[in-house]
Design brief:
By secondary structure, this protein is an alpha/beta fold. It contains 8 helices and 11 strands. The chain has helices at about 80-85, 125-130, 130-135, 155-165, 170-175, 195-200, 200-205, 225-235, and strands spanning about 10-15, 20-25, 40-45, 55, 65-70, 90-100, 110-120, 140-145, 175-185, 215-220, 250.
Length: about 260
């Protein structure tokens, strides 16, 4: 455990959104650099030599002075069952290196950027929609968030609202950020999985926007099943997967937490 003592950061904020969802912020070391959309390994200190560390997307933008995370609570999960109890001034282990594929550098230039998420997969996009570079590279940014119930959409709605009210970035967002929320288990203004809404064209009809074209770029983050289904849709449109060393038309995140 002693080797992790230099990686401890203090909790500065905690908010529980539902019984199973919460967000929190920790202090950010001056030496910690990252690109919006990346994830980092975090954990809690304990008496063992090897604390449980898990990959968490950073939900705050690269310019923010603190680091925000958005988490689900997994019953009996090695980390989240304990992380849910953190309070202000508690210690959290923050490993010094971030990484990930949900970064602007992994995409080719395009006209529109679609950010497709479900559950806590919204976290990296909370970072990207507060990044001025996102709006410098794309004319329109369409962000979607699908959850089981309406109250699970609370975090993403709040983060989108912050974009429009933040004096530092609202001029970039203006009318260029388009959002779409849907639920799968509770009646709402929009219902259904994002895969179905794309395949049927309902997403584009409801938003009054053009269907997918070769000038569109995509990022998606959700369950393994959702990511795989979205990837199949992308391939049907002859779009190619990108990476840091070879930009493409779409990227997906492959790191998960429990």
């Amino acid at each position: 455990m002693s080797k992790f003592l230099n990686n401890l950061q203090k909790v500065t904020y905690v908010k529980h959104w539902t019984e199973n969802l919460f967000s929190f912020r920790i202090t950010r070391p001056q030496s910690f650099k990252f690109r919006s959309g990346e994830f980092v390994m975090i954990g809690l200190p304990n008496e063992e030599d090897k604390p449980n560390l898990r990959a968490y997307s950073i939900a705050s933008p690269s310019w923010y002075e603190e680091l925000e995370f958005y988490s689900i609570i997994v019953k009996d999960g090695p980390l989240t069952s304990k992380l849910k109890n953190i309070s202000i001034n508690d210690d959290v282990i923050l490993m010094p290196k971030s990484t990930g594929t949900l970064v602007l550098d992994a995409l080719k230039p395009g006209r529109r950027l679609f950010l497709l998420s479900s559950g806590t997969g919204f976290a990296p996009f909370a970072s990207l929609i507060k990044e001025p570079e996102t709006f410098e590279k794309f004319e329109k940014v369409i962000i979607t968030h699908t959850c089981r119930t309406i109250d699970e959409l609370g975090y993403s709605k709040e983060k989108i609202k912050e974009c429009h009210n933040d004096p530092l970035i609202k001029e970039f967002v203006s009318d260029r950020l388009i959002n779409f929320h849907s639920t799968t288990r509770e009646k709402y203004s929009n219902n259904g999985r994002i895969t179905d809404l794309i395949s049927t064209g309902k997403l584009f009809t409801d938003l009054n926007i053009e269907a997918i074209s070769e000038n569109d770029r995509f990022m998606f983050c959700g369950s393994m099943g959702l990511n795989n289904d979205l990837k199949k849709i992308m391939l049907k449109y002859n779009l190619c997967e990108g990476a840091n060393n070879k930009p493409g038309d779409f990227v997906l995140e492959k790191a998960f937490v429990d």
